[in-house]
Amino acid sequence: MEPKKNPKADLTRNSGLYFAIGLALVMFLAWQGLEWKNYEKDEAFNYKMDVDEELEEEIPITEMLKTPPPPPPPPAAPEIIEVVEDEEEVEETVIESTETSQDEVIEVEDVVEVEEPVDVDVPFAVIEDVPVFPGCENAKDKRACFQEMMLKHIRKNFRYPEVAQEMGIQGRVSVMFTIDKDGSITNVRMRGPDKNLEKEAQRIISKLPKMTPGKQRGRPVRVPFSIPITFKLQ
Q: Does residue 66 have a pLDDT over 70?
């Protein structure tokens, strides 16, 4: 049996397209209606600005009046001169000369030279009499004996800080100190890669014994000395 409805005459075939076009048209008209604005003529804003030109004021030219110089100061009053009668005798002041003639002989007492005490720092390398480390009193070369005893003292008292070992810190600490005029150790200074190593170097130097002070021209003087202490992990 053949269908009575012609498939070409289907009215719902393009209904979706027509619906979309109609919806878009309605939204466009609604948007135009919302955006429509109407301004009254009375409320129009005037963009013109009237600027009045300012007239230049004439500045009167005034002449500078020259002030007269101040009057000169009055002359000083003359000194009062006392009049002395001829009958009175005026004593004259006699000025004796302090210069001596060639014939006169001046006796000069013997001048005693006073030597000022030597109060300077003399380096260990140039001092005449080096400080004597205990045990080097009878050594022929006291300078070499001093350095050897210093190394022995460092080896004997050396102790690697545990904190530095755990952290793997090593390096060289430069130690500087002064052997004072009484043989004591003063002015100890350190410079190294770590504070723990510097403290250990200071502890070693603090254990140095009292020494015989160095002498320059036969007088005790302060002698600065420096030595490196190397901390190396095995």
A: no
| Least confident residue range of 106-120, 139-153, 168-182, 199-213 | 106-120
Q: Of 179, 177, 187, whose CA–CA distance to 212 is shortest? A: 179
Which residue matches tokens 């008292």?
A: 157
The rounded percent of the chain whose pLDDT value lies above 90 is 35
| 67-86 burial code (b ≥16 CB/10 A, e <16) | eeeeeeeeeeeeeeeeeeee
**Calpha distance 147→154 (Å, rounded):** 11
Could you tell me which residues are beta bridge partners of residue 178? 186, 224
Across the beta sheet with 171-179, the strand order is 185-191, 171-179, 223-231
Q: Which residues, 6 or more positions from 142, have their beta carbon under 8 angstroms from its beta carbon? A: 130, 132, 136
Q: For the chain, give the number of residues.
A: 234
Checking if the pLDDT of 47 tops 70, the result is no
Q: Which of 134, 124, 113, 194 is nearest to 160 (CA)?
A: 194
b/e code 198-210 from CB counts within 10 Å (16+ = b): bbbbeebbeebee
- Domains of the chain are 142-231 (3.30.1150.10)
